[in-house]
Amino acid sequence: MIPFIKAHACGNDFLIVTEEAAANHDRADLARRLCQRNTGIGADGVEFFSWTGPHSCRVRLHNADGSVAEISGNGTRCVAAWMAHSLGSKAGEKLRISTDAGLRLCRIDQLLPGEEFAVEVTAGMGVPTFVPHTLKLIDGSEVVGVEVSTGNPHFVVLVEDTSFTVASKPWQTVGAEICTHRDFPQQTNVEFVRIINEHEIKIRVVERGVGPTASSGTGTAAAATAALALRRCVSPLRVVAPGGAQTVAWGGPGKELFLTGSAALIARGEAW
Predict the structure, then answer these.
(1) Distance separating alpha carbons of residues 119 and 86, to the nearest angstrom
(2) Cα separations (Å) of 9 from 1, 29, 92, 265?
(3) What is the C-alpha separation between 167 and 136, in angstroms, rounded?
(4) pLDDT tens digits along 179-229
(5) What is the DSSP-derived secondary structure letter of residue 214?
(6) Which residues contact residue 55 at a Cβ distance below 8 angstroms, ignoring those fewer than 6 apart?
(7) Are residues 115 and 172 in the same domain?
(8) 27 CB-contact burial (10 Å; exposed 0-12 / middle 13-18 / buried 19+)
(9) Which distant-in-sequence residues (6+ apart) come within 8 Å of 241 by Cβ?
(10) 120 and 137 co-located in one domain
(11) Any alpha helices (H) in 137-252, and if so which ranges?
């Protein structure tokens, strides 16, 4: 039996499985099996976890399709929530989470009221980089966007339409094509961004190795990077996805970006 914790951040759900519990399993196969929505537990990915100190850990993330991802911002907050629960953390406590994209320092801002264990967490997301990029779809349509790295790759498309349509196509269709576009040999995550005002944007997300998701932490950071750097939005910026809102604070190029949002523990169990 494989013990697991299930958690979500703005509807982006993850399983937390210790490295010890997964020791005799192929991580990719295990992630695919556990993340199946109908025949497994169901999740967008698995964070394989090991403690490295009293308030620190190491995680390795596999997407729902079994592929390895450098980091998930929401997944990192989910791990922080589980650490906080395990440690009995109070507001203000800091937790160190090492990922394939580097160390992320998470601060527990507050314990949220409710029946489930939930916290608000501010995570340092590193220094984002960005560069404009135009690509061509299979039908010849050009899509103007921004390549953003928040420790993992993103392609951000700024849209005007309330339905997030791009090149007269649904965002889900365009996002799926861009994810595996030849311009991105390692594939990419895709965000579609509509600016509401200088303090708020709305996004839709297609995650590499997952598909459309309710939210994305690194995607939120990438979308905010593009909006703040290129569209004169103002930090702190509220970023609203279908699964909920997060806040990004960023001082501009060369500065670290900070992401604030909630994370909640959903369930504890064992899987075959």
Answers:
(1) 13
(2) 26, 24, 19, 9
(3) 11
(4) 999 999 999 999 999 999 999 999 999 999 999 999 999 999 999 999 999
(5) S
(6) 83, 87, 93, 94, 95, 96
(7) no
(8) middle
(9) 10, 11, 202, 203, 204, 205, 214, 215, 216, 219, 220
(10) no
(11) 171-179, 217-230
Could you tell me the two tokens for 54? 């009293």
Place of tokens 């996002």: 175
Dist. CA 7–CA 83, nearest whole Å: 12
Rounded-to-integer distance, Cα 244 and Cα 172, Å: 19
| pLDDT tens digits, one per residue of 5-30 | 999 999 999 999 999 999 999 999 99
In this prediction the pTM is 0.96
Give the helix ranges, DSSP H, for 8-167: 27-35, 73-87
**64 in Cβ contact with 94 (< 8 Å):** no
Q: Considering its fold, how many domains does the chain have in total?
A: 2
Structure tokens given for 79: 């791990």
> 63 with 150, same domain?
no
Structural domain including 64 reads: 2-125+261-271
Q: Is 211 left (phi over 0), alpha (psi -120 to 50) or beta?
A: left
The burial of 21, by beta-carbon neighbours within 10 Å (0-12 exposed, 13-18 middle, 19 or more buried), is given as middle
Residues 142 and 240 in one domain: yes
Alpha helices by DSSP H, listed for the chain, are 27-35, 73-87, 171-179, 217-230
For residues 135 and 250, membership in a common domain is answered with yes
